[in-house]
Specification:
The protein is built from 8 helices and 12 strands. It has helices at residues 6-10, 13-23, 61-85, 95-98, 102-113, 136-143, 209-213, 239-246; strands at 38-40, 45-52, 88-90, 93-94, 116-122, 128-135, 163-167, 181-182, 188-190, 222-231, 234-237, 258-261. This is Conserved uncharacterized protein.
């Protein structure tokens, strides 16, 4: 139902009063357009928008607005879940498929319910829209349980680099929530199991190599390496890249200071 029809259909006196009050409100109608729904691989967040209509059974505008906010929050949660289900977790597996396991689904749903509201838009009919977002690291933590002993990182040698940029252009690679860097034999060199904290993203996906090099995440002196092929969704690093990592202190990897360029 369009917003312009609410007054005609409802015919409730307090709606007119609510409109008069809203006209004096310092909050403009639709102050900001909704951000694009889905995964923002560059910023590392999942976004969705929820909308709520006013509670027609409410006795006053304030209660109607509260009902609209509750409805918008529920709608935002459902939309976040819908967006997330189709996101690739790793090669051949979406988040929705991983959530077929009841335990995993429970953790993911709990994480989504803790979403952050980034913006709200109030309308003259007491309806509400809100933009919600959830950081990807929290979702990865819910989807990929910690394993032991994890990926052991080299913390010996000189501290030459502040981060890692992986050039995966031309391989057909696409962003996934849980990327893994491997050697030619398929042994993991870096992934979620290398992180010291599960509140850290595994990697970000900048738009181009220049942007990746300048990312504050990888610091002023990132090591730029080449991925030579895809193994599922895992990126196989060149031998020279593996040698450079082996000869340096790569403790920065435990902080998730990794950018992957796919195009």
């Amino acid at each position: 139902m369009k917003r312009s029809l609410w007054m005609v259909v409802l015919g409730v006196p307090w709606m007119a009063l609510g409109q008069a009050k809203e006209a004096k409100s310092p909050v403009p109608v639709a102050v900001m357009a909704s951000p694009k729904a889905g995964v923002d691989w560059k910023e590392g967040v999942l976004r969705a928008t929820g909308a709520g209509a006013p509670d027609v059974r409410a006795s006053n505008p304030a209660q109607a607005r509260l009902g609209a906010e509750r409805a918008a929050k529920n709608d935002a949660y459902r939309n976040l879940l819908r967006q997330l289900e189709g996101v690739p977790l790793r090669a051949g597996q979406t988040v929705g498929e991983a959530m077929a396991q009841e335990e995993v689904r429970g953790r993911v749903e709990e994480t989504l319910r803790g979403f952050k509201i980034s913006h709200k838009r109030y309308y003259s009919d007491s309806g509400v829209e809100m933009d919600a977002e959830v950081p990807l690291p929290a979702l990865v933590s819910a989807l990929v349980p910690a394993s032991a002993p994890g990926i052991v990182l080299n913390k010996q040698g000189p501290k030459k680099y502040t981060g890692l940029v992986v050039d995966a252009r031309g391989l057909g690679a696409t962003p996934v929530l849980a990327p893994v860097l491997v050697d030619a034999a398929g042994h993991p060199v870096y992934g979620v199991d290398a992180l010291s904290r599960r509140t850290t993203a595994v990697a970000v996906y900048p738009e181009g190599l220049d942007e990746a090099r300048k990312s504050s995440l990888v610091g002023e002196k990132p090591l730029v390496v080449k991925a030579v092929r895809l193994q599922g969704s895992d990126l196989v690093l060149a031998d020279e890249a593996l040698k450079q990592l082996a000869e340096s202190d790569v403790s920065f990897l435990a902080e998730g200071r990794v950018a992957i360029v796919t195009r």
